[in-house]
Amino acid sequence: MGKRQLEMREMAATKRTSSGAGAKADSRSRGAGDNSAPAIADFSKEQELHAYREMLLIRRFEEKAGQLYGMGLIGGFCHLYIGQEAVVVGMQMAKKDGDQMITGYRDHGHMLAMDLDPKGVMAELTGRRGGLSKGKGGSMHMFSKEKHFYGGHGIVGAQVALGTGLGFSNKYRENGNVAMAFFGDGASNQGQVYESFNMAQLWKLPVVYVIENNKYGMGTSVERSSATTDLSQRGASFGIPGEQVDGMDVRAVLAASDRALEHCRSGKGPYILEMVTYRYRGHSMSDPAKYRSKDEVQKMRTEHDPIEQVRKRVLDANWATEEDLKAIDKDVRALVAESAEFAQNDPEPDVSELYTDILL
Ligand SMILES: Cc1ncc(C[n+]2csc(CCOP(=O)(O)OP(=O)(O)O)c2C)c(N)n1
Ligand SMILES: [Mg+2]
């Protein structure tokens, strides 16, 4: 490697540590000139405990899904969300009933945050009759119109155009709802993202584009794949405001989500939130993870874990004891165990189901 290349790598590394996961959102990347808004929401005891439970449910659910996958009970692909829990939980806490979510294949956390039945999600992973798509969709394809969750999509970036369509329908129906379209750092380089941005800003559609920058697209780091790495500014040429958010701190996520949703709801058009986060596990269950060091992952887990941050704050404030938190964990584990039990004992779909729910 030449000297210049080495220098560039070093510069990229310095940039990573100053704006990486765990970094506080700075006013430079704030959108809409709104520098007075707080970077971090002040949480009440109820909010902290709600966030704790919701994030823990996602974590325990995903750990169990990983185990079932290892036992050969889940077929096909399975992309875990462990490490990124604060992003979807913070957004859930900011949304109003009727606001929609749509995401890619790393979708179990979004479903749980949108109150989809954990049993139905787990049974879909194992391909059983009681799964949310009757056992025929699998990990990447679950929906609930009733809960305003629109999938679950395996094509990178597809959900961005579809989410823009959800925003269009909100505007057309004048229902006051906002669509939240989640996608990754890798997806943010996709062509249809920019076609969507253009239309959304042109027609002032209520869509929050949530870029979950977990630092990697499969085994490729953002620095290796993206010409510009401040993804919050990707809407600049369309005049879409954006901000970079500490996606490991649920309070920062809530504060930024409030701003973004308010912007969209008041008719000003779309908004971009780059949630700087980190995925602890591999891209999918079959990822050997040779592209990053164990130390890198360990550092993130020990210094920025979203659940540990809440746990520490709650204990420091004397809002709960170790025993109280253990009781929440026990409760969550029981719910997950019940889902796993159901997902293993529910029958597989009848063969006749091969001919239903298909377009001819
Ligand atoms: C159109 C398309 N191209 C490529 C793929 C293969 N693929 C699946 S996931 C992925 C990486 C996406 O990374 P990112 O957007 O950062 O999301 P993350 O997996 O990190 O959540 C790729 C290239 C695909 N599914 N669809
Ligand atoms: Mg990624």
UniProtKB/TrEMBL annotation:
Keywords: Oxidoreductase, Pyruvate, Thiamine pyrophosphate. The keyword Oxidoreductase applies. Residues 1-13 have a biased composition (Basic and acidic residues). It comes from the Bacteria. GO terms for biological process: pyruvate decarboxylation to acetyl-CoA. Residues 54-351 form the Dehydrogenase E1 component domain. Transmembrane segments: none annotated. The keyword Oxidoreductase applies. GO terms for molecular function: pyruvate dehydrogenase (acetyl-transferring) activity. It catalyses: N(6)-[(R)-lipoyl]-L-lysyl-[protein] + pyruvate + H(+) = N(6)-[(R)-S(8)-acetyldihydrolipoyl]-L-lysyl-[protein] + CO2. Its cofactor is thiamine diphosphate. Residues 1-39 are annotated as: Disordered. Its EC number is 1.2.4.1. SUPFAM superfamilies: Thiamin diphosphate-binding fold (THDP-binding). Heterodimer of an alpha and a beta chain. The pyruvate dehydrogenase complex catalyzes the overall conversion of pyruvate to acetyl-CoA and CO(2). It contains multiple copies of three enzymatic components: pyruvate dehydrogenase (E1), dihydrolipoamide acetyltransferase (E2) and lipoamide dehydrogenase (E3). NCBIfam families: PDH_E1_alph_y. This is Pyruvate dehydrogenase E1 component subunit alpha. It comes from Roseibium suaedae. The lineage of its organism: Bacteria, Pseudomonadati, Pseudomonadota, Alphaproteobacteria, Hyphomicrobiales.
